[in-house]
């Protein structure tokens, strides 16, 4: 009886570990850029730098929704979460930014 109980417990523990490891999908890490737009990921934090006519920088935290990146910006008065039209391509380690009618740009990893 002890062996059966021990075997069931071991199998349950193994299955739980497998589910835990598969729930941690790939996430962007480091700096990604393309001409006027740079994103820098550090853990769950992100900094967005835009240099188009004026230089603008914002920081906050991000979460992955499947392969989509959702950023929660942190400001002096409040925080706001918004969809970003950013999609992480784990196979190529790039981020695709959909700009509506302007098309799509690909942010390459900066070394």
Search tags:
111 residues, alpha+beta, 8-stranded antiparallel barrel
Structural class: alpha+beta
* Strand percent estimate: over 45%
How many helices in DSSP terms?
1
**String of helices and strands:** HEEEEEEEE
**Biggest beta sheet attributes:** 8 strands, antiparallel, barrel
Helicity, as a percent range: 10-25%
Shape: elongated
The N- to C-terminal Cα distance equals 57 Å
Q: How large, in whole angstroms, is the Cα Rg?
A: 20 Å
Compact summary:
With 111 residues, the chain is of the alpha+beta class. Helix content is 20%, strand content 55%. The mean pLDDT is 78.
Describe the structure.
Helix content is 20%, strand content 55%. The chain is α+β, with helices and mostly antiparallel strands. Strands 1-2-3-4-5-6-7-8 form an eight-stranded antiparallel β-barrel. It is elongated. It starts with a helix and ends with a strand.
Lay out the secondary structure.
Elements: H1 2-23, E1 30-34, E2 37-42, E3 45-52, E4 54-65, E5 68-74, E6 79-89, E7 94-98, E8 104-110
Antiparallel strand pairs: 1-2, 1-8, 2-3, 3-4, 4-5, 5-6, 6-7, 7-8
């Amino acid at each position: 009886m002890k062996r059966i109980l021990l075997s069931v417990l071991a199998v349950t523990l193994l299955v739980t570990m497998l589910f835990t490891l598969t729930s941690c999908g790939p996430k962007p890490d480091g700096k990604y850029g393309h001409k006027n737009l740079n994103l820098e990921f550090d853990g769950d934090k992100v900094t967005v730098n835009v240099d188009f006519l004026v230089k603008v920088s914002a920081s906050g935290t991000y979460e992955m929704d499947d392969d989509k990146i959702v950023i929660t910006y942190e400001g002096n008065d409040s925080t706001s979460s918004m969809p970003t039209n950013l999609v992480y391509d784990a196979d190529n380690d790039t981020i695709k930014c959909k700009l509506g009618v302007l098309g799509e740009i690909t942010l390459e990893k900066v070394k």
